[in-house]
């Protein structure tokens, strides 16, 4: 059983509609491929995560609140990456170690 029309005018109309639809699909595919390439480029250009993070206070003059490991899920939005020496110095100055990632243990920091 044939589900296509039998007369030439309707077949030409269907052909035109299908060509238009195929063109739209190809444009959508091209746009999706561009988005995917842009995402891959941005992931490759992303700087590496810092080894240690200082979670900063509410304003720029307040002291740091916590020291975190670089990949800690609990690090707040106000933070900055620091090196090992700065993280150790912050812990020695009394900045609290994150209770979740325990950077003091990883750094070998012993209080007192």
Strand order of the largest sheet: 3-1-2-4
How many alpha or pi helices?
A: 3
Helix-strand category: alpha+beta
Percent of residues in β-strands: 5-15%
Overall number of strands: 4
The profile of the biggest β sheet is: 4 strands, mixed
- The ordered H/E elements are HEEEHEH
Give average pLDDT, whole number: 89
Helix content: 40-55%
Overall number of domains: 2
Overall geometry: rod-shaped
Q: Give the distance, in angstroms, between the N- and C-terminal Cα atoms.
A: 88 Å
Question: Could you list the spans in which at least 5 consecutive residues all have pLDDT below 50?
Answer: none
Radius of gyration computed on alpha carbons: 29 Å
Set down the secondary structure blueprint.
Elements: H1 8-45, E1 52-55, E2 66-69, E3 79-82, H2 84-92, E4 96-97, H3 103-107
Structural description of this entry:
This protein is α+β, with helices and mostly antiparallel strands. It folds into two domains: 7-46; 52-107, no CATH class. Helices cover 46% and strands 12% of the residues. It contains three helices and four strands, in the order αβββαβα. It has a four-stranded mixed sheet with strand order 3-1-2-4. The longest helix has 38 residues, at 8-45. The protein is rod-shaped, with a radius of gyration of 29 Å. The N and C termini lie far apart (88 Å). The relative contact order is 0.12. The mean pLDDT is 89.
């Amino acid at each position: 059983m044939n589900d296509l029309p039998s007369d030439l005018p309707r077949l030409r109309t269907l052909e035109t509609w299908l060509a238009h639809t195929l063109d739209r699909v190809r444009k959508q595919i091209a746009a999706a491929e561009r988005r995917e390439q842009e995402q891959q480029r941005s992931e490759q250009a992303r700087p590496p995560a810092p080894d240690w993070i200082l979670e900063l206070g509410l304003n720029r003059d307040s002291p740091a609140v916590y020291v975190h490991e670089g990949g800690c899920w609990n690090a707040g939005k106000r933070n900055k990456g620091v090196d090992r020496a700065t993280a150790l110095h912050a812990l020695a100055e009394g900045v609290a170690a994150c209770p979740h990632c325990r950077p003091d243990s990883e750094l070998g920091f012993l209080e007192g």
